[in-house]
Amino acid sequence: MEKIYVLDTNVILHDPKSIFSFEDNQVIIPMVVIEEVDDQKKRQDSVGSNARIFSRYLDELRKKGKLCDGVELDNGGRIKVELNHQLLTELPKGLDPNKPDNRILATTLGLKTDDGNIPVILVTKDINMRIKADAMGLTAEDYSTDAVNIDELYSGIKNISVPSDQINALFKDKKLELNELDLEERLYPNQFINLEDELGGSQSALCCYDETKDRLIPLIFNPTDVWGIKPRNREQKCAFELLLNDNIKLVTLVGKAGTGKTLLALAAGLQKVVEEKSYKRLIVTRPIVPMGNDLGFLPGDKDEKLAPWMRPIFDNMEFLVGGKDENGASAIADLKEMGLIEMEAITYIRGRSIPNQFIIVDEAQNLTPHELKTIITRAGENTKIILTGDPYQIDHPYLDSNSNGLTYVVERLKDKDLVGHMTLYKGERSQLAEIAASSL
After folding, report:
1. What does the alpha-carbon distance between residue 66 and residue 83 come to, in Å, rounded to a whole number?
2. Where are the beta strands (DSSP E) in 339-418?
3. pLDDT 10s digits, 359-407
4. Which domains does the chain have, with CATH numbers?
5. How confident is the model at residue 251 (pLDDT cuts 50, 70, 90)?
């Protein structure tokens, strides 16, 4: 049955390709949405970029016909810029008819009244907008094309019960053919497997799935420490295995606060760049999304402006470089002066081609799928990208644990042999931090 989807501005600014995601249904863009998108087009961040991309899409579609009458899409659907159908007089008392959100609601209400036999659905990432729509008797949905069920997120590790002789065979032969295991579920490239004795014995083995040879192999690196950091649990050991493997070009690390995501990534980055010289430079970046009230304009050059946002990175870096001494800041300054370390804002990544670099994107849960795609596609030859984040700590107003870029990347790329993922569960920062992360 054909449906009518009315798109809110935040959906378009989140994903400019959203207009092509509704199959053979009608897509309605209220005129007020065009105005709001136009207000954002000069921004120099991903929101401004998405606004400009969307405008170019509509300009191309305009060549097929008048947008006010509706234009056919290649997927069988139809898109229309709606000028009429605003039942402003029917808005509940107390709603300002001049407010853009309420004008979008009025357009949805008018379409529902005129096309009573066709379901009309408002698509918005604004929770309060969905609540207001529901109170007015309208159907409203989140834009969920890029959503992932966080409860079913790929963890990167799997427990398998096997006879003890197969565990012995793995240790002896340094391999275990997958056809020797009776598995019902598929394994993914670079997935870690914890083999357990099916009779309940204490014997176990941690290994990794090699898709190219369709076998399980022991960990390749299994380091005692990386840049002075020793893995404290099984997941951290697996994370180092991914971080140190130059054949794996994209690593995603997910975990709650204090599990060591950023520290492990930085330690591996310093090891690879400074010690092994496998990469030319370590680039560390994170989205500039404030928690709570924004600080507003910050004075100084780029490094001075970034300093408050990069403070968590500096804290970890100083610990790694300076240890218990007070020379961490000067050591970091020396590495930066040598061109081995670069702190960069996400905004300045766009448009670059970055070869032979070790890139860490911290707090990646605050990025949209489109933003992460933009970052990952910047990778040049021999570049490795690390994404770290906690999907339950999101500061972006239109993202949540199911619809952020980090979880989207984990699920969409888990079957690629250049990609590895690990979910870290145990907090190692301190006993107090673990209690807070688990109980609050």
Report:
1. 12
2. 341-345, 357-361, 384-389
3. 999 999 999 888 898 889 989 999 999 999 999 888 877 788 888 999 9
4. 4-141 (3.40.50.1010), 221-439 (3.40.50.300)
5. very high
Strands (E), 281-382: 281-286, 341-345, 357-361
Q: For residues 204 and 198, what is the distance between their CA atoms, to the nearest angstrom?
A: 10
Phi first, then psi, for residue 324 (nearest 5°) are: -85, -5
Contacts of 104 (CB under 8 A, 6+ apart): 6, 8, 9, 30, 32, 33, 122, 124, 129
Query: Could you tell me which of 182, 178, 179 has the C-alpha nearest to residue 191?
Result: 178
Amino acid type, 298: L
Q: From 146, 37, 152, select the one nearest 372 (Cα to Cα).
A: 146
Give per-residue pLDDT as tens, 34-93. 999 999 999 877 788 889 999 999 999 999 999 999 999 998 999 999 987 777 777 888
The string of DSSP letters for 154-213 reads --SEEEEEE-HHHHHHHHHHS-EEGGGS--SS---TT-EEEEEETTS-S-EEEEEEETTT
Instruction: Provide DSSP, 152-166.
Output: G---SEEEEEE-HHH
pLDDT number for residue 303: 63
The Cα 435–Cα 281 span in angstroms is: 36
Distance of CA 393 to the CA centre of its chain: 12
Helical ranges in 228-296 per DSSP H:
234-244, 261-270
Contact residues for 97 (Cβ-Cβ < 8 A; gap 6+): 88, 91, 103, 106
Question: Nearest Cα to 388, choosing from 266, 210, 274?
Answer: 266
CA nearest neighbour of 60 among 89, 21, 19: 19
- Put the strands of the sheet holding 26-30 in their side by side order: 71-72, 78-82, 26-30, 4-7, 120-123, 139-141
The answer to pTM > 0.85 is no
Considering only CA atoms, which of 210, 323, 320 is closest in space to residue 263? Answer: 320
pLDDT (average), residues 150-173: 92
Judge whether residue 292 has pLDDT over 50: no
Mean pLDDT of 323-343: 76
- Closest C-alpha among 54, 42, 44, 76 to residue 10: 54
Rg for the chain (alpha carbons), in Å? 25
Confidence tier at 295 by pLDDT (50, 70, 90): very low
Match 């489109």 to its residue by tokens.
370
Strands (E), 43-119: 71-72, 78-82
